[in-house]
Structure formats: C-alpha cells, structure tokens
Write a structure and sequence with these properties.
single chain, globular, two-stranded antiparallel ribbon, 8 strands, alpha+beta, 5 helices, six-stranded antiparallel sheet
Length: 154
C-alpha cells in the first residue's frame, strides 16, 4: 500500500514537472522580446483583414499584436491607441519585441508593429502587401509617421 501511494505521488510530481516545463518552454513563465518575435514570425503571410484578430480570419495591426502577446500569456488592449499606453516608453535602442507606433493623421495612433531588430518590424500591413509582413523603420513613410515605442517585455 505504501509503495502504491509513493508511486502515485511520484507520478503526480513528474506530471507537474512535465506540465510546468511545457508551460515555461512556450514562453509563459517569463517571456522575452525574442519570444515575442518568434511567435510573431509564425504568422508571416496571414492576410490583413480590418478588425481581424486571429490567424483563421486574418489580422489587422492591433489584432495581430494582441494575438501574439496573448500566445505568451500577456493581455493587451485591442486597439493600437490603447496598446500605446501599455509598457515602458522607449526613446532609443529598440529591442526585439518592442511595440512601434505610427500616426498617419498626426493626432492619434493609427498603426502598430513589433520590432524584430536591425531597423525592421513585423506587422499586419494594410498597404499593398495586405498581410503580416516585415517593414523597415527607415522607409520615408515610416519615419514621417513614427509616433513612439513601448517595451512590454525585457
């Protein structure tokens, strides 16, 4: 009887360790910016759909960002303007996983993407690409409409 109880306790403990390890290996324990980029890159090519918030139906920019962070256990607001109010402001030295924001009208946040490194970000583009793709911060349009960045994870 004692051996059976010990065996059950051992199996329960091993199951806990397995589940905890799987949970952490998917970035849920302490996700990094690199984890954010890794998750985001899984959805490259998913079509842009205004109001979209899943890979099955397509993404808009803020729906894409919200979905990516949710995969890592981080809840963000649904719209880009509200997402801009979350995290620590970044004034220089972007890190992978930082959110980059743009304003096409000069008074409100109208677009968001996830910085991946080397001056590039991944986003759900409503432009000619109309899909999740990469863009560069050095492009004139992006320089002209850049509105700030925030850091959600380190």
């Amino acid at each position: 009887m004692g051996l059976t109880l010990m065996n059950m306790l051992f199996r329960a403990m091993m199951m806990f360790v397995f589940v905890f390890t799987m949970f952490c290996s998917h970035g849920f324990c302490n996700p990094t910016g690199y984890d954010v980029v890794t998750v985001a890159e899984r959805y490259k090519g998913v079509p842009y759909v205004y109001g979209g918030s899943s890979p099955e139906t397509g993404f808009d920019c803020s729906g894409f960002v919200q979905y990516v962070f949710a995969q890592l256990g981080i809840a963000l607001p649904r719209t880009a303007d509200y997402q801009a109010g979350v995290g620590k402001p970044v004034t220089e030295y972007f890190l992978p996983g930082d959110l980059v924001f743009f304003s096409s009208n000069g008074y409100e946040i109208t677009h968001v993407g996830i910085y991946v490194g080397n001056g590039q970000f991944i986003h759900a583009s409503s432009g000619s690409e109309r899909r999740v793709t990469y863009d560069t911060l050095d492009r004139e349009y992006r320089r002209d409409t850049y509105a700030g960045a925030t850091r959600i994870v380190e």
